[in-house]
Amino acid sequence: MSDDFSSIKSLADLTPELMNKISEGTFTDLLGLKFTELSGEGVTAEWVVTPQQFQPAGIVNGGVYCTVIETLASVAAGAWLGERGSVVGVNNNTDFLRAVREGKLTGVSTPIHRGRSQQLWVVVITDEQGRTVARGQVRLQNLYPQN
């Protein structure tokens, strides 16, 4: 695959594989986040917990969850908006429900509201047993190009 991404006009053009390629060398790549599903209806991604993600008590740092939640909501919202414009997060509210020290985690985004000016998405992160470990809600502003 060529690293020339110039043919991509919007996030709606991306597959999970292409999003993983584009993410190489970014903050989400540093976390090990791998996209498995990607559309304007929602995004799913997973990653394996490593000690580099820990806070001093030896559990996943809440910032990791905030990052994953913001990423999945933003990518899904951008895919939904498509070529009409782009999105930026304006609020991220994340609840941490269960301490995690190891294993694979999965995040799934679901739309709550997709309007003309803003979108609201919920993201749930679960462990390998299907237990919710974190849940977040992200509000995004739709940005349209100036004509």
UniProtKB/TrEMBL annotation:
The keyword Hydrolase applies. GO terms for molecular function: 1,4-dihydroxy-2-naphthoyl-CoA thioesterase activity. Keywords: Hydrolase. It comes from the Bacteria. Pfam families: 4HBT. Residues 58-134 form the Thioesterase domain. The keyword Hydrolase applies. GO terms for cellular component: cytosol. Gene3D superfamilies: Hotdog Thioesterase. Belongs to the thioesterase PaaI family. This is PaaI family thioesterase. It comes from Nocardia yunnanensis.
